[in-house]
Amino acid sequence: YTPRLNESKLTPRQKDIVNLIAKGFTNNEIAEQLSVSVHTVKNHKSLLYRKVDVRNTMELLGASRAMQMSDLTYPHRYQENEI
After folding, report:
1. CA-CA distances (angstroms) from residue 18 to 23, 50, 80, 81?
2. Alpha-carbon torsion 74, 78, 79, 82, what sign?
3. ∠ CA 71-73-78 to the nearest 5 degrees?
4. Fewer CB within 10 Å: N-end or C-end of the chain?
5. Is 38 helix (H, G, I), strand (E, B) or coil?
6. Secondary structure of the chain in the HEC alphabet?
7. What is the DSSP code (8-state) at residue 41?
8. Could you list the pLDDT tens digit for every one of the 83 residues in the chain?
């Protein structure tokens, strides 16, 4: 069984998180890059794991590679009303 990451089901922020994980960023570094708390990053990762049906970061990266998510642009620029 290979988890499949359906890019269209991810929010722009979740795509940002996946891209930063793929670049080797730690939770603290992701939080700093996205101007959010480490708790928020961990929450996003937990939701991603459930959405993609994986158990850990390595499986998430495997699923993202299967969908060639490394081609996603980073970062998504939020409009003021999206935040």
Report:
1. 9, 14, 22, 23
2. positive
3. 155
4. N
5. helix
6. CCCCCCHHHCCHHHHHHHHHHHCCCCHHHHHHHHCCCHHHHHHHHHHHHHHHCCCCHHHHHHHHHHCCHHHCCCCCCCCHHHC
7. H
8. 555 566 667 889 998 999 999 999 999 999 999 999 999 999 999 999 998 889 999 988 888 877 665 444 444 444 444 44
Amino acid at 44: H
Angstrom distance (rounded) from CA 20 to CA 33: 9
pTM here is: 0.72
Token code pair at residue 67:
């969908």
Query: SS3 of 76, please?
Result: coil
Answer whether 39's CB lies under 8 Å from 47's CB: no
Please report where in the chains the tokens 């930063």 appear, as a residue.
20
